[in-house]
Structures are given as C-alpha cells and as structure tokens.
C-alpha cells in the first residue's frame, strides 16, 4: 500500500469514530472574540485569560521589538540573543521569585528540554496520569524509569516514590499546577511534602497558573506560590507566555545553577531558533501589565464565579474547577461535537475536547474564561448552553453534581 492510501484509511477511521480534528481559520480575533467565515463570534476557547493578546501596550511593544528584526535568525547560543530577552528573563525571574529564568520557544519545548536535561537512564520520573502531553513526552524521551500515579492521588504518588527510591538514581516528580483539560489544581503542598520526604525534585508546569494566581508577594507566579511554595519546594518552575501573557513561548525559572545548566544541556533550547525579539518585547510588556493591573485578575475571578453560579443554576455538568478552565463533562464525542456546532451557530466558540486528548468516555466542552468577557456575554453563553444541552446529555457526564 502507498503511504497516501494508508493515511487515507487511518483518516477515514478517525472520521468514523467522531475523532477527526478540523482547523478553524480566523479572520480576526478581537479579544475575547473571533471572526470566523465573516461572522463575529464570542470566543470561550482561548487561553488569553487576561485579554493581553490584544492589549494596546503589548502590541505597541511587540511592534517596537520588531525593529530588531523579524526573527532571531539562529539559536540563542549560536547567534547570541538581545537585551530584550535578558530583560524578559529577569522580569520572569522576579515575577516567580526565582534567581533566574530561561526563555524557550514554546511550553512544549521547555518541558521536553528541562526534563531530558535533568534526568536520564538510571533515574526515575514520577508523573500524574493527566499531565500535559509535553511532560509525558519529556518523560518518555528522557529514558528515565517512568512511573505514573492516578490523578492527584497523593497515596499513589507516595507508593511510586517508594518504588523510585529502590531504583537508585535521582527522582523528578512532574505535575501540572493547573490541569489543562480539567481546570483543577494539583495538591501541591502535599506533593511537595512527599518530595521532601523522598528526596525527590519537584517540577511544576504553571502553563495555566502563571499570570492567573499567586501569593500576596508574588501575585502572578502561579499555583505553587498560591500554595505557599517557593524555590526550595519547587526547584523547577515552568511557565508559558502563550496563555495569560497572551503571546508565545515559555520559560523555566529556578536557581542560577538550574538556568546555567539548562543553557548547557537542554537540547530544545540549544538546537532551535531563538524566540523572535518582538515576541520577547511583547511578552515583557504583558508581564508588566499583569503585574501592574491586579484588577484584571479580579475581573477574571468575578467572571469565573459568575459562570459557575449560572451553570449550577441551570444544572449544567460542571467540574470541580476554580480556574479559568471550566469544562462541562458530556461523556460522548458525538454529543460534544453537536453541542459545540450548535453553540457556534449561535455565535460562541468553545473547545470540543475528545479522546485521545482526554480519557475515553470523558469528552467535554472546554470553556475558558477571560477578564475580557462581559457578564452579558457569559449569560448569553449560559443560555445557549442551557438550550443546546437540554435532553442531549449522555453517559456519566450527565449525573455529576458539583457546587458552584
Ligand atoms: N503545558 C501545559 C499544561 C499546557 O496546557 C500547554 C499548552 N497547551 C503546554 C504545556 C505547552 O505550551 P505551548 O503551547 O507554549 O507549547
């Protein structure tokens, strides 16, 4: 069989199982909206939690940054990088309460690069089963012994840590701070305590926590700071710039030694073209805006509370999430697709998430909230959801009861 014939057969099978993924081409994206096929829509599908992707100050800084050139023209190590990269790294280190930070071109690259640099054959990596794909792939590629534990089950984590201890070598525990498809936070204080007891290093992926939550002293640092944890408990903090910062790229923050070591050994940092200087300039402006404007986080929190109240009143199948990620668990793929299509026909973009991104039987609408949404937009979505979901819930998703 030719490659083309084999691929056609596999694609047909994917279509028949309702798992075929289709790309949307947007004509514009005025936060929190999108223009699709000439129609203005309200987007509840982006990770632009603070509305910074279209913030005038961020865009102006990015345009100014482009004066340095459209691209970085080579890897950071080969061609050097600009002062703006250094300024961004310093700002990220300060925002996360770490000594230093290193920017990567994406969160995927940051996770893969950091994990593979830190552990290898003879070591162990212990991961939550619902970790993001980039952590899972990093664990696989590292060649360390890969041990997984049931989602946020600290008893299961303790058992895997005991197993890892018998293997000798170093142990890295890697978890999402906020789970990207469920929106729940990892029990980081307990996880950090177990890491301390078992002499394991903790790495937290703050892709969805950075910019959104933190402590009084470090309000945008993410979920670990919100749980009262610093560098001692979480020596490897990864965050992305493509979500609350509304831009692109990512970073790892930690001790000076960690950052120096990653520059030497993180292959996804070394062997890839550097972050464009304009992106670094835009991301730096976004970090400054998020630090200067706590009202954005307050507005986001108000929107989350408003959505959850309205969804609970309408009996929608909410999950236990206090983050901007508010999935409605519907169970079967076909229902998710038809409800998402109906919402689109009413002018709302929501994520339709199916296996293999989530476990079989847990297909869901992934609704994400932003500080840029108005209460009226959220109410309109809730009304549309109420109508679209009437009589369509199937499987386990229908029966869940969660407090607002
Ligand atoms: N980690 C998590 C938890 C994520 O949700 C994502 C993005 N979906 C990533 C890492 C990857 O980040 P990026 O999009 O910058 O590659």
Automatic annotation (TrEMBL):
Its keywords, alphabetically, are: Acyltransferase, Biotin biosynthesis, Pyridoxal phosphate, Transferase
Matching entries from SUPFAM superfamilies are given as: PLP-dependent transferases
Q: Which InterPro entries match?
A: Aminotransferase_I/II_large (IPR004839), AON_synthase_class-II (IPR050087), AONS_Archaea/Proteobacteria (IPR004723), AONS_Proteobacteria (IPR022834), PyrdxlP-dep_Trfase (IPR015424), PyrdxlP-dep_Trfase_major (IPR015421), PyrdxlP-dep_Trfase_small (IPR015422)
The answer to whether keyword Acyltransferase applies is yes
Give the matching Pfam families. Answer: Aminotran_1_2
Q: Which family does it belong to?
A: Belongs to the class-II pyridoxal-phosphate-dependent aminotransferase family. BioF subfamily.
What protein does this entry describe? 8-amino-7-oxononanoate synthase
Q: Which organism is it from?
A: Microbulbifer aggregans
């Amino acid at each position: 069989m030719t490659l083309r014939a084999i691929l056609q057969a596999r694609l047909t099978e994917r279509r028949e199982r309702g798992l075929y993924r289709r790309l949307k081409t947007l004509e514009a994206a005025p936060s929190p909206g999108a223009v699709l096929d000439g129609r203005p829509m309200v987007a509840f599908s982006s990770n632009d939690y603070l509305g910074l992707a279209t913030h005038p100050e961020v865009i102006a800084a990015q345009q100014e940054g482009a004066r340095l050139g459209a691209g970085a023209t080579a890897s950071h190590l080969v061609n050097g990088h600009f002062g703006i990269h250094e300024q961004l790294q310093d700002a990220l280190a300060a925002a996360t309460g770490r000594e230093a930070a290193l920017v990567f071109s994406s969160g995927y690259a940051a996770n893969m690069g950091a994990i593979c640099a830190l552990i290898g054959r003879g070591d162990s990596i212990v991961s939550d089963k619902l970790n993001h794909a980039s952590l899972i792939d990093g664990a696989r590629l590292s060649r360390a012994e890969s041990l997984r534990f049931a989602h946020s089950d600290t008893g299961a984590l303790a058992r895997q840590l005991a197993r890892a201890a018998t293997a000798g070598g170093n142990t890295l525990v890697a978890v999402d701070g906020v789970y990207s498809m469920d929106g729940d936070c990892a029990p980081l204080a307990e996880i950090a305590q177990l890491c301390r007891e078992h002499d394991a290093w903790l790495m937290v992926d703050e892709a969805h926590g950075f910019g959104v939550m933190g402590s009084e002293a470090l309000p945008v640092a993410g979920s670990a700071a919100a749980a009262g944890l610093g560098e001692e408990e979480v020596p490897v903090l990864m965050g992305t710039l493509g979500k609350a910062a509304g831009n692109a790229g990512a970073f790892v923050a930690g001790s000076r030694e960690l950052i120096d070591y990653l520059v030497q050994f993180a292959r996804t940092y070394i062997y890839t073209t550097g972050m464009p200087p304009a992106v670094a300039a835009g991301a730096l402006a976004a970090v400054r805006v998020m630090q200067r404007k706590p009202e954005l986080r307050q507005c986001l929190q108000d929107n989350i509370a408003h959505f959850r109240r309205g969804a609970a009143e309408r009996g929608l199948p909410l999950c236990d999430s206090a983050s901007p990620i508010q999935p409605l668990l519907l169970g079967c793929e076909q229902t998710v697709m038809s409800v998402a299509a109906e919402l689109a026909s009413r002018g709302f973009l929501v994520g339709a998430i199916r296996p293999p991104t989530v476990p079989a039987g847990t297909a869901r609408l992934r609704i994400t909230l932003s500080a840029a949404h108005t209460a009226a937009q959220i109410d309109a979505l809730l009304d549309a959801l109420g109508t679209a979901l009437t009589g369509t819930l199937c499987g386990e998703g229908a029966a869940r009861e969660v407090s607002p």
